[in-house]
Amino acid sequence: MATARALQVRLPPLPSIKDIIRLYKLRALRELSQNFLMEPRLIDKIVRAAGNIENNVVCEVGPGPGGITRSIIQQAPRKLILIEKDPRFIPTLELLADACRGKVDVDIITGDILKTDVSHFFPKDVKREWTDPPPPINLIGNLPFSVSTILMIRWLEMISKKEGAWAFGRTRMTLTFQKEVAERMSAGIMDKQRCRLSVMCQNWCNVKYKFNIPGHAFLPKPEVDVGVVTLTPLKQPIISLPFKMVEKVARQIFSMRQKYSIRGCQTLFPEEVREEMALRMYKMAEIDPVTRPFQIANGEFNRLCEAYNEIIKKYPELENYDYRAPKKKVDVNLEEAKV
User: Fold this and answer.
1) Confidence band (pLDDT; 50, 70, 90) for 38?
2) I need a labelling partner for 254 at 20 to 30 A (CA). Which of 65, 77, 230, 298 fits?
3) What pLDDT score was predicted for residue 5?
């Protein structure tokens, strides 16, 4: 049975991305971790990884000279929001906006994605309930390496609070990362790349590592390859506790990655009660203390976080303890604290 052919927007003849870069005398800035993807076939593959975006609202992060932007426009989204920090690229993006005028509504926002709430630019009628299928909104971006992990953590916190783009429902993301970061995000139990970022991403999202892009496809060529990842927020997180608490437990347990996981867990507590509290936490969670961090499954992290939550409910003076902060004595009743 034949399937309906997707609508495509035909752009008028335009200079190639390579020509655009030459005509506008653009060069990638090392301080902004800029790398331009030059291969049209791979650009189209990134956009296809987002699924059917026809009539969707698409927000592209860091469009640069507009290579991915062109491919998005050709897939006929209802609206395209471009968030670009570097003002040098605005004329090239305005060229594309003019080329598709009357076919795709394009908003060009000059700003830093770390300081921009993209939801301000979404039409109200695309909002969905959290338990509904994802809204017709897509976040797409070839992210600079220097901000990709910071941005991902920030977005995960917004997902946990249903804020920003996720005030509109379970908004999907299609993003590029340094290959090693992409591997960490998707790494399962026993994987050598499994880390805090693995637990955080998988707690709030369905993470799919789609494919690699070789470094030589970019200008300038980065020292590493790039991974394309899609993330769809889960209806219900595996660990239903506040973001900061989950992040703290995951961070400390993975802080001593190659040692027994209880060693990292001990750093959640002040020195004077460290061993007693960590043993109590592992006993409550029914986790073997000699388990290595990368051997702990997401469901087991849930039990550890729940155990930590119970402990700080009983001993609230422990909640704000920070292993990295200057040491100061925390008064805890040692007799009550002991297992």
Assistant:
1) confident
2) 230
3) 44
Section 279-302 average pLDDT: 97
**DSSP states of 179-227 as a string?**
HHHHHHHH--TT-TT--HHHHHHHHHEEEEEEEEE-GGGEESPPSS-EE
Entry pTM: 0.91
Only one residue has tokens 């001993």, namely 315
Which residue is listed with tokens 């909002």? 127
Residue 6 pLDDT more than 70?
no
The structure tokens 């956009």 sit at: 47
CA distance 205 to 321: 28
Q: What is the average per-residue pLDDT within 244-265?
A: 95
Residue 14 is predicted with a pLDDT of: 77
Q: Greater confidence, 145 or 197?
A: 197
Over residues 103-120, mean pLDDT: 95
Query: Regarding beta strands 57-61 and 172-178, do their DSSP bridges make them parallel or antiparallel, or are they unpaired?
Result: unpaired
Buried b or exposed e, range 132-142, using 16+ CB within 10 angstroms? eebbbbbbbbb
Integer Rg of the chain from CA: 23
What is the C-alpha to C-alpha distance for residues 330 and 272, in angstroms, rounded to an integer? 8
Which tokens belong to 109?
Answer: 């926002």
CA atoms within 13 A on the CB side of 156: 27
